[in-house]
Each structure stands twice: as structure tokens, then as C-alpha cells.
Amino acid sequence: MDKTEISTRPERKTQSWTQDPEGVRRNILEAARIEFVEHGLRGARVDEIAAKTATSKRMIYYYFGDKEGLYRAVLEAMYERIRSFERGLDLSALPPREAMAKLAGFTFDYHAENPDFVRMVMIENIHHARHLSSSAKIAELNLSIIGVIRDIYERGVAQRLFRPGLSPLDIHLTTSALSFYNVSNRATIRQVFDHDMGAPEVLARRRQTVVETILAMLRR
Predict the structure, then answer these.
(1) Cα dist. 121→72, 117, 200 in Å?
(2) With contact defined as beta carbons under 8 Å apart, do 36 and 123 qualify?
(3) Are the CB atoms for 28 and 70 separated by under 8 Å?
(4) Displacement of CA 174 from its chain's centroid (Å)
(5) pLDDT band per the 50, 70, 90 thresholds, residue 19
(6) What's phi and psi for 95, nearest 5 deg?
(7) Which of 101, 120, 158, 216 has the most crowded CB, counting CB atoms within 10 A?
(8) Vertex 197, ends 196 and 198: CA angle to 5°?
């Protein structure tokens, strides 16, 4: 390795940071997500994250403060992603039953296709939601889905399709629980019952069951 090669490597990292700071931030968050999902908050190492990015450990601390700040930012990005997809469903344009069925199906699909999201939520529960409670952004993000469900539900009640007296939060919790369990307990269910909840035909049946369960819960 000659001196020219040694001198140009740090410059490429500096240029990446100065020319595309948001790209560098996304790169850090992606590497951090993989590290936290694999090793949890306590086991994750910032050195390993830095080694997989286009920046340095020093710049990671510049962006996020410390490892817990980086972990919180990963959580925020993951919640922002699912809430962003939900906002893009355009459920207000659909009749209430169709809208609720679409939301339930989407929720099931999103969890099935994004097991890292489930893993991160499980890790945060181990930490008693300490990092969620310190994030005003996550609290605000998650209010949006309750508003979406409230709008669909109230339209359904007004049209005498849904029974009155239900809580939008309970509807959300039931939908999330049914979708979450199918991913979080996949390994234990396979071991105990020799049943693969991740198999395509099983997923299709479970998805239909979740949608039908939510609609039955709401039916007048």
C-alpha cells in the first residue's frame, strides 16, 4: 500500500459526510439496525457499526450522541416507516368494512415481511420501553394510527355496520397482537407443534383469519 492510497481514504469519508450528510445518516441507521437486531442494545458495538458504514465512530457520536441515542434513532426510523406506509393506504377513500380489512391485512403483512421491526419492539420491551418514553417523536408518530382507526370506526358506526362502544386503541391492539405473535413466536411454535408459521400457505391462512377476526370484532 503506497502513501497516496493511505492519504486518500479519510478524504473519501470526509467528502461523503460533507456532500451527503443525510445519506451518511441513513447509512449509519441501516448498519445500526442490523447490529441492534442481532445483538440487542447491550451487545451491540459502535465499533462494528462504524466498520460497516461510510463514516467513523466519531461521526456516529456526532450525529447521535451515544449508543443509546443511536438505538433510539433506529426505533424512531422503524416506527416512522410503518406509520408512513399506513398513511399511504388512503383508507379514507374506502367504505368502512373494506378500509378496516385493508388495514388489518396490511398490518399482518408488514409484520410478516419486517421481522426486524418485531425484534426491535421485543428488545425495547426488555428495557421496559425506556427509550420509547424518552422519544417525543415516537409518541407523536403512533398517535396517527389511532386517528386513522377512529375515522374508519366512526364511519362504520354511523352507517350501522360496526357496533358502538369499542375503543380505537383496542382495535389497534388486537390487530397488532395477532400480527405480532405470528412473527415473535415463530420459533417456539415450530418447536412445540412442528408448525411453521412462516410458510407461505400458513401465512395466507393466518392473514385471512386475522382480517376475519377484526371484522367479527366490529360487526354489529
Answers:
(1) 11, 6, 24
(2) yes
(3) yes
(4) 17
(5) low
(6) -60, 155
(7) 120
(8) 90
The residue among 89, 128, 117 whose CA lies nearest residue 180 is: 117
Give the closest residue to 59 by CA, choosing from 31, 24, 84, 30: 24
pLDDT of residue 190: 95
Average pLDDT of the chain, as a whole number: 90
Q: Specify the fold of 72-218.
A: Tetracycline Repressor; domain 2 (1.10.357)
Which residue shows C-alpha cell 428488545?
123
Whether the per-residue pLDDT at 136 is higher than 80: the answer is yes
Burial tier of 215 (Cβ tally within 10 Å: 0-12, 13-18, 19+): middle
Task: Give CATH superfamily name and number for 1-65.
Answer: Tetracycline Repressor, domain 2 (1.10.357.10)
The total number of residues shown for the chain amounts to 220
Block residue for cell numbers 368494512 = 97
